Amino acid sequence: QEDEIIGWIYQYYNEEARREFKKAGRKPTADDIPVINQFYTPHWVVRVLTDNTLGRLWLEMQGRCPYITSNPDNADGGSKIVESRIGLPNPKDSETFQNWLQNPNGETVDTFCSYFVPLKNEPPLREKKSVRDIKLLDPACGSGHFLVYAFDVLYRMYREDEPGTAESDIPGLVLEHNLFGIDIDLRAVQLAALALYLKAKSYNPDIKVKKLNLVVADARIIDGERRDNFLRQFDEDLPLKKLCAKLLEDLRNTMDIGSLYRLREHFKPYFEDRKEKLRQAEQASLPGLASDSEQLVLEGIVPQKRTLEKIWEAFHQFEREAMERKDMGSMLFATEAEKSVGLLTSITQKYDVVLMNPPYGSMSKKAKEYCRSQFPTTANDVYACFIEQAFDVTAISGFIGMLTSSSFMNLGTFETLRRDIILDKCAPVMLLDCGIGVLDGAIVRTAATILHCSTSSNRHLTPAHRNMCTFFRLIDVETGKKELVFQDLLSEPETKRSRETIMDVNDFNLVPTSPFIYWGSKKLFKLFSKHAPLDVDLAERSHGKRIASLKSGLTTGDDKRFLRLTWEVDSESIGVSKKWVPRPLGLYEIFYSVSDLLVNWNDNGQEIKEHPQSYVRNESFYFLPGLTWARTSEHAPGIRLLPPGCIIGDRTPLISPAVPLWGLTALLNSSLLSYLLLYFSHPRHWEVGHL
């Protein structure tokens, strides 16, 4: 595909640098992040996410959004699609329909967005707005793949909404009013600008691009005399001077955090000061002295956008004066600072649609510190911070479309993200569980998710509208066949598709940590609240009989130094109260296993305890008999006997039973328990909290 060429070239342009970084084994810096996190989004995933966010937004506005409802004419129950789109090929003509799915070239949103998925229940009424007022943001835009495809959709929206506008003018309007992108990588943004320019030229070869809303968040602002000289422009407005100084201080980290920058806390004291001045002015004003509107202009609350414009103009003025003096240092300071104000302007707007494939995992030290401070509930992974930030910049009833790691669906560390953001504020409406292989070169399980942002102001929607989500299971499909399988699902005439599940996401709250276990049933979900957990303390239950205590064990901090195999040491030095103590192996076994691993516990583990990277957990449970398992295993956890006299590890925890041992062993190795554990495991990590 022509639109994909630039992005693929850039991904492989970084391939050698990515290999060098992995080989070096060092912690990432701000300059490393664009290289190690640059993974191109496949075109079919871009289509799925865009068609079902931007395309859905438009079809809802026009009253042509198809949906699934119950079928009263079917004796066996079932559902049917209520189709309102115009000009679609007949699904019964399989060859024509399949060709349309693969190569949509329609002149309307209806016929162009062929990867659109009808959802359960009729969508709520959506207020119409001019296409010029629809804003779409990619906060980690890379080479602009989402933006380029969204351009095609927006072009068709303009043709319908503004039939009187010359088609040659539409490309410029799309670039000026609708598309916004942010990235920390200058080269990627330059390629995004090129891709958008070429896309606009494909519609109008003579176009003169006036404006591109692309921001490079790579500013490097330095302190010193030039910063102080710039701030003197605000001496007559000390609160604004203080605000600007704080912004410049924080914006030194722009290269590390990009579009994750949070602005509200900085503006809050500034506007509080303005409110207080307004209150004092109202009390002191005399009749005829000033009108209410004049009073607001003189002493009122300056809107956030206007404040940023004022700061931006100050940078322009500072730059003009520097050019007159030929002061290159001041010119550079102003240019770098202007980049940051462009970033601030972008993240203070509200967007109807946010589309993104955010970075995963690795963060620089400064970025980690910033995320812990500003995103305390999601700071465990950078992509989770992007999800939280996306909600903050998305308008009420807007859509978020994202390709992320699927770890947020199951892992306990993402419980707050699931409960407090995704399930509470952004009702998920569609999710493709893609598995491995979607991102070329990245060994990560991914999910393509559509979120419908909702707040207390639109909670009047019925539960059926807010909570039903359509899931597609593609994790077991080969990498090269995932798109074809998805196309086949859309081609199936029956509304009940083999890999499709429609369920109420509120049911996930019946299970501890609210995992997205769409393959389970509500009856099984209820078992978790009906029956006692293994460890009532670990599950934070105030009632129920204790079945067992589950405890993690020792992390040595240096296994090469403190671990040995039995044939490497004198057999007389092995045993409790001796130097070398048995430790269970972290391998998959079932019912029973023999370990050849030993740990140095000389002098009650004094040498290990003095090691700075060691972690001695639950020492009072060492040497006890019970059960253990491998915390990481591609199979089941493998519950097996743990003989007395062993030291449990972090990867081989302890189950200390309060019930008969053999019966518990049989139950924990049952196929039912393995199935239930899959509700929490991703991917095959059998944590203490899971059991």
Automatic annotation (TrEMBL):
Organism (species): Candidatus Hakubella thermalkaliphila
Record-given protein name: site-specific DNA-methyltransferase (adenine-specific)
An example Gene Ontology biological process: DNA modification
InterPro entries assigned to the protein according to its UniProt record, in alphabetical order: DNA_methylase_N6_adenine_CS, MethylTrfase_TaqI-like_dom, N4_N6_ade-DNA_methylase, SAM-dependent_MTases_sf
Classification via Gene3D superfamilies: Vaccinia Virus protein VP39
Keywords, comma-separated and alphabetical: Methyltransferase, S-adenosyl-L-methionine, Transferase
Domain Type II methyltransferase M.TaqI-like, residue spans: 177-427
Domain of life: Bacteria
GO molecular function, one term: nucleic acid binding
SUPFAM superfamilies: S-adenosyl-L-methionine-dependent methyltransferases (SSF53335)
Enzyme Commission numbers on file: 2.1.1.72
Catalyzed reactions per annotation: a 2'-deoxyadenosine in DNA + S-adenosyl-L-methionine = an N(6)-methyl-2'-deoxyadenosine in DNA + S-adenosyl-L-homocysteine + H(+)
